[in-house]
Write a structure and sequence with these properties.
Length: about 130
């Protein structure tokens, strides 16, 4: 038995949505204050719905699995729904992360909000879920 469950291993070994989007509507990056790892998430938005998302993660396996899961979770969701996703939900969807790896999921949570923030700034929009985020 390893430290990681099968879902985490699957998203680490076969990450979904890796790479860059052409003409993204929003790009967010976030670096972990805990370990220095970095994550970039890009989104495409149409009528306030996230139609596509891609990520690049310069970080550990849990950060890669978290960004793979997080991008899968936000595609097809409205901006408000995506903003409501917490790192706890990302961990739940992954079936759990070791305690020392919880901050890796925070990276994904923040990178999503950062991408939406970029989109909101560029389009003169405000979202309640972004309150306090910059
Ligand atoms: Fe990122 Fe160890 S600190 S892999
Ligand atoms: Fe820091 Fe995973 S993102 S160890």
């Amino acid at each position: 038995m390893g430290l990681y469950n099968d879902t985490v291993m699957d998203h680490f070994m076969n990450p979904r949505n890796v790479g860059d989007l052409e003409n993204p509507d929003g790009t967010g990056t976030y670096g972990s204050p805990v370990c220095g790892d970095m994550m970039q998430i890009q989104i495409k938005v149409k009528d306030d719905v996230i139609t596509d998302a891609k990520f690049k993660t310069f970080g550990c396996g849990s950060a890669i699995a978290s960004s793979s899961m997080a991008t899968s979770m936000i595609i097809g969701k409205s901006i408000d729904e995506a903003l409501a996703i917490s790192n706890k939900q990302i961990i739940e969807e992954l079936g759990g992360l070791p305690a020392v790896k919880v901050h890796c999921s925070v990276l994904a949570d923040h990178a999503i909000k950062s991408a939406i923030y970029d989109y909101a700034q560029k389009n003169g929009k405000t979202y309640e879920g972004l309150a306090g985020f910059d």
